Amino acid sequence: MKRILKYIAIGGSIALGAIGQACAQQSSSLQFETTEYNFGTISEDTTAVYGTMHFTNRSDKDLVIARVLTSCSCVEAQLADSIVKAGATSSIHFSFKPLNFPGHINKEIYIYTDQAANTNTETLYLTGFVTPTTNPLNEFRYSFGTFYAKQKQIRFRGVDQPQVERITCYNHSDQSLSLSVAPGVLPQGIIFSTNPEVIPPHAKAEMVFSFDPNVWKAGSQTSFSLPIQGADTSQGQQPIIQINIE
Fold this sequence. Notes:
Elements: H1 2-28, E1 30-32, E2 36-43, E3 49-57, E4 63-70, E5 75-79, E6 83-84, E7 89-96, E8 103-113, E9 122-131, E10 142-144, E11 147-149, E12 153-156, E13 163-171, E14 180-181, E15 190-195, E16 203-211, E17 223-229, E18 240-245
Parallel strand pairs: 2-9, 12-18
Antiparallel strand pairs: 1-3, 3-7, 4-6, 4-8, 5-7, 8-9, 10-11, 11-13, 13-16, 14-17, 15-16, 17-18
């Protein structure tokens, strides 16, 4: 029995050693000058920042870069060459859009080669720090003329207790706004209000959506759109908030 266990242990060690050697060979084919790029300190108001990393194909065969993925839609990456000759040097160019990402930058780029279909050969790390925007409009993703909102969709999860969801908005007009939902459009169980009730010119506010499951009837409509009235839509579309009850 001890002899059998000894053979199993030896066989397992050999197998693990072979796997480790294969992984080492795979990761050693691409040699980067550095795998981390620091953008330094940048402003959220910056449209985009750019960088480049250089690498060498250390193997004795041409290397095919199968694909490049990023950990965030705010990062775009493009290779200078999709096929890198043996011993040749190439580069990868990338950009980062800091809007809506204040704070520390921790993003990644994954490089896949023909050496492994489902495992990335190399991971590159993008770091730095983004200072918050000084433009109040930059923090709002959606614009409807002179009315801005951070989001246009909310979800009420579960129907066993009352819930409140808020959407931060901004009145970029020179007039005060009183927002409302047209009578008959607001479903039972949903109450709409704003905080403050009257939104001053060039000021932030909140659209408040309150859900009362005791009034809302289970089995009724669970997805609907609420047109918001009161905003100046002469220069854009009417704000419509999508609500889902899950």
